[in-house]
Amino acid sequence: MRDHRFRTLLAQNAAFVLLWLAMLLALAPVLFIILTMLVKGLPGLSWSFLTSHEAGMLPSIVGTVLLVLLTGLITTPLGVAAAIYLSEYARPGPVSRLIRLAILNLAGVPSVVYGLFGLALFVTWLHMGRSLLAGACTLALLVLPLIISASEEALRQLPRGLREGSLALGATRLQTIRRVVLPNALPGILTGLILALGRAAGETAPILFTAAFFSLTDPFPSKLTDPIMALPYQIYVMATEIPNLPPEQKWAGALVLLVVTLGLNLGAIVIRARLRKKTRW
After folding, report:
1. Rounded CA gap, 88 and 143, in Å?
2. Rounded (to 5) percent helix, strand, coil in the chain
3. Segments making up each domain of the chain, as ranges
């Protein structure tokens, strides 16, 4: 009996050690990248580098934040509505399977293809020009499959009893979705939104064709149809087309993008945590 318990405890400890090793192996590349960016980027950071309108990163920071926020405003209602249809209304069958297959395939399309599609549709055909709105619409198409998949999974994880209890009390299906299902699924939906917007913040190819310039006479957009300066494109140009630029400034630009992305994600995580405290099921 003691030998059996000892073997069970040994196997359990070995499994925990393997799990910790797997986690460390997964985190090691990320930590190495962050440490490298800190070591090489911090010497290039200065107040003028961050806040200057001409040679600094402030216009790119503002443009990136506006682009990400507008992308979220466009794609969140579309993605959640599609997820509600697939989870609550679509009947199992070839049509729903075809829709889900299309969503999975769209999630694997390279971002440069979305950029060319956005150039043809929004910039050329709809006459938006290279603008904040055209870039946000293109990024919305890019991250829409991720939001749909994450939102649908969050809706499916809710206990069936929540829906049945609401319907049994006389609520309609729409009232059940609006007052019971969505509030309880909101933390999971926000998780998908955080991942989607984190990807959108770092994409270069879509905004290269639809929104971003390296330098502008008026660096801050005053309306949706104005072009913008964005951190991913700014860093791309700094790294590839300005050979005499000090390397620490290139790393500093990448470090600024990392901080902005983490800041946006942390803000969304705080909101999700507060909403999760309010939901109990």
Report:
1. 22
2. 80, 0, 20
3. 47-278
Tokens of 162: 């929540």
What tokens appear for 227 in the block? 């072009």
Q: What is the pLDDT of residue 219?
A: 78
- Give the tokens for residue 9: 């405890």
SS3 state at 228: strand
DSSP 127: -
CATH number of 47-278: 1.10.3720.10
Lookup result for tokens 């318990």: 5
Q: Which of helix, strand or coil describes residue 258?
A: helix
* Chain segment 26-82, per-residue pLDDT in tens: 888 888 888 988 888 888 888 888 887 766 788 888 999 999 999 999 999 999 999
In one-letter notation, the amino acid at residue 221 is P
Which two structure tokens, joined as six digits, stand for 170? 């006389």
The whole-model pTM stands at: 0.85
Closest alpha carbon to 94 in 102, 105, 83, 82: 102
Tokens standing for residue 137: 């619409």
Q: What is the spatial distance between Cα 94 and Cα 237, in angstroms, rounded to a whole number?
A: 46
Non-local CB neighbours of 175 within 8 Å, separated by 6+ positions: 166
- 10 Å CB burial of residue 105 (0-12, 13-18, 19+) is exposed
The DSSP H or E segment spanning 60 is helix 58-84
Are the CB atoms for 45 and 110 separated by under 8 Å? no
Distance, in Å, from the CA atom of 123 to the CA atom of 117, rounded to the nearest integer, reads 9
Residues 6+ apart with CB under 8 A from 82: 144, 148, 151
Smallest CA-to-CA distance from 256 within 51, 67, 68 is with: 51
Beta bridge partners of 212: 228
Distance CA 45, CA 253 (A): 8
